[in-house]
Amino acid sequence: MFFRQKLPYIILGIGIGILLTNTVYSFYSKTESKDYTQEEIIEKAKELGMVFLKDAIKVDNTDENESDKEEKPKEVQIVIEKGDVLDKIANNLYTAGLIDEVDEFKKYVYDRDLESKFRVGTYTLEAGMEYEEIIDILQKRKK
User: Fold this and answer.
1) Which residues pair with 126 in a beta bridge?
2) Which H or E element spans position 121?
3) What is the pLDDT of residues 116-128, one digit of tens each?
């Protein structure tokens, strides 16, 4: 009961304190603003490592005939040694640039219950292969 009688006075006190603080701050604020010119803004942006979109885009002026040529996929040697676990195999594949995400590859293998079926050996894999193709080769399975 005692608290209910004092509640309006507490709220009134907080409100007066906020108004008083706001008034004092409006007279004694130390906020400074500076208007920058376009050149100054560009200079500051360059200091921070920002670039214009036009500068960042490189236009390739090659013949259409050259762009039609297919590049040969990059081949990579992967070695699986005795005792290697899925974590190490997945990290090696990621380091070699054959997979984009280690956790995604491990989840794919675990979902198919294939984590213990990798075989010791040296394998040649190509960049851009699907997970299923990689696993087939590393387990020496035939499709």
Assistant:
1) 75
2) strand 121-126
3) 888 888 888 888 8
Mean pLDDT of all residues belonging to the chain = 81
Other C-beta atoms within 10 Å of 93: how many?
21
Round to whole Å and give the CA distance between 40 and 94.
43
Which pLDDT score, from 0 to 100, does residue 143 have? 40
Specify the residue for token string 């603003």.
33
- Nearest-angstrom CA–CA distance, 55 and 139: 47
Q: Which amino acid, one-letter code, is at 31?
A: T
Q: pLDDT tens, 38-57? A: 889 888 888 888 877 766 67
- Domain assignment of residue 89, given as a range: 75-138
Tell me whether residue 89 is exposed, middle or buried, using C-beta atoms within 10 angstroms of its C-beta: 0 to 12, 13 to 18, 19 or more: buried
Output the domain CATH number for residue 109: 3.30.1490.480
